[in-house]
Structure formats: structure tokens, C-alpha cells
Specification:
By secondary structure, the chain is an alpha/beta fold. It contains 9 helices and 18 strands.
């Protein structure tokens, strides 16, 4: 049997993961990651780290496994929080949960676990791992969780072969209700605990207040763009190269529409956002269709079918393309039919990857709403997550 370090988060999923590994006869050690100290921007009673660490300790005591807390707040601030501030300042929308898995849970945390003599690291993610022999070599695949409502493969779309080789997902084959049943049967304190929400390791935050720690408020205009203008812009692109035209964002100027309100900073908003605009009196709800941090302007359109929100393609720069299945990586000029998603919980969409020297285009069969630079696109073959990239 193996020595396994489990990332005990204080939630039911990692608690049951530790229990199942113990039942299999593994030597299990529980480790809680403390990555955040500032409670001033968290919404009270939403994922406070002190309560979580205490619950993790009680679970470890119940199971009779060693337990300790590691403080990774310095690395978290450097690799995740600073990255978030930088991306928002550039008018992009980062996904800290994907980055957190790549940089913290499966990098810094994994290094600590290995230094403790661990053979594997285990988490409570709803994912599965499959290992095949390809050309005489072990190849690991990240497979979607068996519970379609909880599948978290999107959040792990940046992990590497090296990281997967040392990772176990003990609950990935289970449905969430079954996980709670197991926790209840073992009388684990986390059995009825609700799932955490919000930023990885921080909890549910008031995002403007969080960002205002480094990004100062900057009043600017909200400009409404008529649907007809966006439609015309798309039609005028017919003469462009197809891939670039399908993936390039529409651009606007304040003269293209009318001012309908003001905001406190374009860097606090993202494409597709509806809440927080503070503009009423419209026939249909307003959505952010574009932000311009250079002019500090937010462009909005009425309705979730506004042409400015919809696009059939996106682009990932060559240095941002990541293949989990390195053996399937495309060479320039090659294409691959895949299923893809641009956000967590989105149903997989039919798409084609087009690999070029300067990067990869992802062209969808149907238009997608609010493709946001800075977010991740993940591509699949069935339930096998092949790779991902940061949207340009």
C-alpha cells in the first residue's frame, strides 16, 4: 500500500476521500492548506478558514490519521492574488480556481507532500484518472467525474502528466449524494456541511472591495451599443481570413452608442456581466459586451442575445496552449474535432482546434456567449480532458 497525503479542506469531499483511502489500506496523512489571512473582504460565514481548519482536524482525529496545517499564504499571494490583480487591471477576467490547482494544490502542496515521503497526493475533486500504456510508456488521462453535476475536470485542465502521475481522486467515481451518505455513516462532522463557494481558498468575496486593495476606483461612462451596429461589424468581416474573423473581438468607441450611466472602474467588470451596472429603465436587461480599460469605458447591450456578446471562435497564443495528453498535441497546420467549454458547468460544445505557428484557434459549431479574455478554454475527447489554454 502507498503513503498518501490528502489535502483536507474541511469539506465533506476531502473527508470522504481520506476515509476511502484509509479503507483501502493506505497510510494516510491529512494536510490543511492555510492560504489566506484577510477576512475583511470575505462575506461573513462563507468559508472562513479557521472553521475549515478546525473541521479538517476533527475529521483527521475521527479517522485516527496524522494531521498538520501548512501556511502557503505567501505563495498564494504571489502566484494567485497578484496574478488576479494584474489580469483585472488589463481588462481581462482571470480564473483563480484553475490557476490555484496548477500552482498551489498540484505544485507547492505536492512538493510538500513528497518531502514528507508521500507516494501520492489525493484531493476531493470530482475527477478521475486513467493510466494507459502508449508506445511502452505510461500516459495519464484526466477523466470527468462520474457525477455530471459535480464534474470538476475544467478546474484541473492545466495539470501536467507529472502532476497526474502522483495524484489520486478517491471520490471521482461517486455521485455527490453517495459521498454524503458515506460521511454520515462514519459520523464525520463535515457530512452535512454545505459546499464552499467563491474564490479558491478565500471564499465568497465582495469582488470590487477585494480588487480595491490594489485597483483604485476610477469613474467612467457606461455606453449602450445598439444590436444593429454589432451585427453590421460582423457582416463587414466577411472579407477577412476566416479563423481570425471568427475569433476576433468586436471593438467600439463612445461615439458608437449613447451614454446611459456611469461606473466606478472598467477593471471591475467583465464580459457577460449583468449585475452591478445600476442602470434601469431598459426594455431588456443590460449586459456588459465589452470593457476598455484604456478609455475606462464599459460598453453594454440589451438582452443576452445581443450580437456583441456572441462569437463562434477564440484564440489561444502558442505559449498559453497546454496539453495534458502531450502525445496528442497538434502540430502547426493540423486540426482536431473536440468538445470544449469556456467556463465551469457549461455543457460541452462541439468545436474544432486549428493549430497555427502563433497559437491555436478554437472554432465552435454554434455561437458562444461572453467569451472572456483571461478565462480558460478546455477541450475534450468524450470525457477525457485533453488540454486547455488561456483565452487571448
Amino acid at each position: 500500500m502507498a503513503k498518501v497525503v490528502v489535502g483536507l479542506s474541511g469539506g465533506v469531499d476531502s473527508s470522504v476521500a481520506a476515509y476511502l483511502l484509509q479503507q483501502e489500506g493506505h497510510e494516510v496523512i491529512g494536510l490543511f492548506m492555510k492560504n489566506w489571512h484577510d477576512d475583511s473582504v470575505t462575506i461573513s460565514d462563507e468559508c472562513p478558514w479557521l472553521e475549515d481548519s478546525n473541521d479538517a482536524m476533527l475529521v483527521a482525529n475521527k479517522l485516527g490519521i496524522p494531521f498538520q496545517t501548512v501556511d502557503l499564504s505567501e505563495q498564494y499571494k504571489e502566484r494567485i492574488v497578484n496574478y488576479m490583480f494584474d489580469e483585472y487591471a488589463r481588462g481581462r477576467t482571470p480564473n483563480p480556481d484553475v490557476l490555484c490547482n496548477r500552482e498551489i494544490k498540484f505544485d507547492v502542496f505536492m512538493d510538500i507532500a513528497i518531502s514528507l515521503g508521500a507516494d501520492y497526493v489525493a484531493t476531493g475533486h470530482y475527477c478521475q484518472k486513467r493510466t494507459d500504456i502508449v508506445d511502452g510508456k505510461e500516459v495519464h488521462s484526466l477523466i470527468a467525474g462520474a457525477d455530471p453535476n459535480k464534474d470538476q475536470s475544467y478546474f484541473l485542465c492545466q495539470v501536467s502528466q507529472k502532476q497526474l502521475a502522483r495524484t489520486l481522486f478517491p471520490i471521482g467515481h461517486l455521485q455527490k449524494p453517495r459521498v454524503r451518505e458515506i460521511a454520515t455513516a462514519q459520523n464525520l462532522i463535515t457530512a452535512g456541511k454545505k459546499d464552499s463557494q467563491g474564490l479558491c481558498f478565500i471564499g465568497k468575496v465582495r469582488l470590487p472591495e477585494f480588487l480595491q486593495q490594489q485597483l483604485q476606483p476610477k469613474p467612467g461612462d457606461i455606453v449602450e451599443i445598439p444590436a444593429s451596429l454589432s451585427s453590421t461589424q460582423k457582416q463587414n468581416r466577411n472579407g477577412e481570413a476566416v479563423l481570425s474573423s471568427l475569433s476576433r473581438k468586436l471593438t467600439y468607441s463612445p461615439q458608437d452608442g449613447k451614454k446611459v450611466g456611469t461606473h466606478v472602474g472598467a477593471h471591475y467588470f467583465t464580459r457577460g456581466q449583468r449585475k452591478g451596472l445600476g442602470v434601469g429603465g431598459m426594455v431588456e436587461p443590460l449586459f456588459v459586451i465589452e470593457t476598455d480599460v484604456e478609455t475606462n469605458t464599459i460598453y453594454v447591450g440589451q438582452g443576452n442575445e445581443h450580437p456583441g456578446l456572441l462569437s463562434r471562435g477564440l484564440f489561444v497564443a502558442a505559449n498559453e496552449v497546454h496539453w495534458i495528453r502531450e502525445d496528442l498535441e497538434l502540430a502547426p497546420g493540423e486540426t482536431l474535432n473536440v468538445m470544449a467549454r469556456i467556463r465551469y458547468r457549461q455543457a460541452l460544445q462541439q468545436a474544432t482546434l486549428h493549430c497555427e505557428e502563433h497559437g491555436t484557434y478554437v472554432i465552435f459549431e454554434e455561437e458562444q456567449s461572453a467569451i472572456s479574455p483571461g478565462q480558460f478554454v478546455a477541450w475534450y475527447d468524450g470525457d477525457n480532458c485533453l488540454g486547455s489554454g488561456v483565452i487571448a
